[in-house]
Amino acid sequence: MPAEDEGGSGSPSPTAIQTRVSEYWKRAGVLGRALADRPGAPTFRFTEGPPSANGRPHIGHILPRATKDLQLRYRRMRGYRIISEMAGWDCHGLPVEIEVEKRHGLKSRKEIEAFGVARFCDECRATTLSVAAIWEEVSERLGYWLDYTHPYTTMQPSYIESVWWSLKVLFDRGLLEKGHYVLPYCPRCETTLSSHEVAQGYKEATDPSITVRFPLLGEVGPPRFLLVWTTTPWTLVSNLLVTARADLTYVVVRLTDGTEAILAEAALPRYFPAGAEIVTRLTGRELAGREYRPPFPFVPPGPGRFRVALDDMVATDEGTGLVHCSPNFGPEDQRIGAREGVGGFDPLDGRGVFTSLVPLVQGKWFKTADPILIQDLADRGLLERNESVCHTYPFCWRCETPLLYRAIDSWFVRTSRFSEALVRHNSGVAWIPSHLRAGRFGNFLTEAKDWALSRSRYWGTPLPIWMCSKGHPTCIGSFAELERRSGEELPPEFDPHRVTVDRIAFACPTCGEK
Ligand SMILES: [Zn+2]
Ligand SMILES: [Zn+2]
């Protein structure tokens, strides 16, 4: 070995070897020759999944690049023509935004807007370009040969236009729709997250685990109440129903203070391990329709509110068999609330802070409101049990803020309508390693949920949907179509991000309004 490989210590220096080989590759023009087109040769199809250009590459990024390189290198040596060798960079999304937020100490969407959305996006763009340059250098050292001089980036106008085209195809087929559903929501990033983003952020957390007395109304005899368990006391503020299961047996037990509590018989050992005096038994069906006084007085009365409803999702493996239902803050709750026609109540602003709808905790973040609400329940004699529970709870994968589930407007791609076909086609795919076919990827497809793709953010592909004042959506599939509709000529350097796109308006093709 040449002396330069000795690294001065008698053992080979990988860095020195790498530098020497790189220099040789450059001198001999190896990259250009490897990437040279081979017309007529058999084709090997390849698409570079673009790494997210928001931070320096680490070893976890290097491994997949080395794996891809191995495959491409082998195919080149076997004389294949590789289509395509184009490098790519994923430039959009929360990771980049959070980098820029950190740099300027921005903590909310309001602060970003004060900072200036255009300036914010310019910084996002500059950040991804400088990070892409670092990635390019690392890839060169790694010998991962792609065409880095003509990369595709997810922020370039032609790329965004192609996304618009795909979205319009989905829209025209009725597969891109607006919905109002309960979705995972990050109160710091002030946006919804997709289910696969949520799956990346489960952590152990300690939360309150409280059992609350809901006094029944119109009972004769001693005061009676429903025992209701929750790990999210802040949602009790917006309670609208209590859910029981029709076929479960519930018991009325007499307590030492002379009052009576109702809970599922199956939950008795958990709440009264020493036994309890059972006054009577009744089924969930017999409980249905009973009215109660809600734990907090902030929700206005409305049709069907504050009574026992029935649902099969009620289980008895934890809690009391009587389930608190807050339709704005849980997917099951929303389903039941919609069926019972009780409407909703959302006392939180975009940052997860209580508004003036709940004076008791106004200005408090949802999680920090918990102890105040628990104390208030205790002061009013409604707190049956106050414990804590260690369980897995979803956190934002980018900023580690605890998520909440809330009913919100979002756009969905109806992927669930294709889950059967996706699973069928996947069964014929040659996966390496093969266990992924039925394993991680197979599971993902089997459980394919509608994709909540809209984010209430700034640095991303803007949804090409314009709403008129009457709520009719128009989906635009290309820049030319946007020019046609708006009658506005787009500048040659048109940059289709929210800052520019939000300014363009046109008459609604359905009703003529803007
Ligand atoms: Zn977040
Ligand atoms: Zn219209």
UniProtKB/TrEMBL annotation:
One of its GO terms (biological process) is isoleucyl-tRNA aminoacylation. Coiled coil: none annotated. Gene3D superfamilies: HUPs, Valyl/Leucyl/Isoleucyl-tRNA synthetase, editing domain. Residues 22-481 form the Aminoacyl-tRNA synthetase class Ia domain. It catalyses: tRNA(Ile) + L-isoleucine + ATP = L-isoleucyl-tRNA(Ile) + AMP + diphosphate. Keywords: Aminoacyl-tRNA synthetase, ATP-binding, Ligase, Nucleotide-binding, Protein biosynthesis. SUPFAM superfamilies: Nucleotidylyl transferase (SSF52374), ValRS/IleRS/LeuRS editing domain (SSF50677). One of its GO terms (molecular function) is ATP binding. Its EC number is 6.1.1.5. The keyword ATP-binding applies. InterPro entries: aa-tRNA-synth_I_CS, aa-tRNA-synth_Ia, Ile-tRNA-ligase, Ile-tRNA-ligase_type2, Rossmann-like_a/b/a_fold, Val/Leu/Ile-tRNA-synth_edit. This is isoleucine--tRNA ligase.
